[in-house]
Amino acid sequence: MGYGFTLQCKHCDYEQRVLLGAGFLTQNLAKQAYNDMKAGTYGAEFKEALEGTPYAAVHLMNELFVCPDCGELTVEPDVLLCAPTEGYVPECAMPALLGPELGDGEYTVLLTKTHTCAKCGAVMNKAENPRKVACPRCRGELTASGMIMWD
């Protein structure tokens, strides 16, 4: 189940609804990302790592990303290509993996999709604390309000 809230600026009229985590369709999105990696859509590095990693899995959850240059905020799927830790063999070869714990240590991250700012082209960073980010318009303080549960 995903969660969310609304970010509002105290100094200007900026407001954004933020929906994070995973919902019931996330499994389908992770499988699509897996197939896209296999087809080379994510680039040669992802394709080669996927082909060379038995039982590779995709971890996908919506996260808030912040542009370090212009301050733009965007919610996008954080896509990770993961490999089973040494000695771990999954019960089935699932091409998708959900949950923030990556299977309680059963998987390690091989590659992470890079997120690029649509406004200025800089590489974006995942917000360490999505409830504590600056306003992309005036750089003032944003307050998070409400609690949304979504699936």
Helix/strand layout:
Layout: E1 2-9, E2 15-20, H1 26-39, H2 44-51, E3 57-66, E4 73-84, E5 107-112, E6 125-126, E7 142-150
What count of domains describes the coordinates? 1
| Beta content | 35-45%
Order of helices and strands: EEHHEEEEE
Question: How can the largest sheet be summarized?
Answer: 4 strands, antiparallel
**Number of helical segments with 4 or more residues:** 2
Lateral arrangement of strands in the main beta sheet: 5-4-3-6
Q: Radius of gyration, Cα only, in angstroms?
A: 17 Å
Distance between the termini: 5 Å
Shape: elongated
Number of strands: 7
Helix content: 10-25%
Any low-confidence stretches, pLDDT <50, length ≥5? none
Coarse structural class: alpha+beta
Mean pLDDT over the residues: 90
Provide a descriptive summary of the structure in words:
This protein is an alpha+beta fold and 151 residues long. The chain has one domain. The chain contains 2 helices and 7 strands, in the order ββααβββββ. The chain is elongated and about 50 Å long. The protein starts with a strand and ends with a strand. The mean pLDDT is 90.
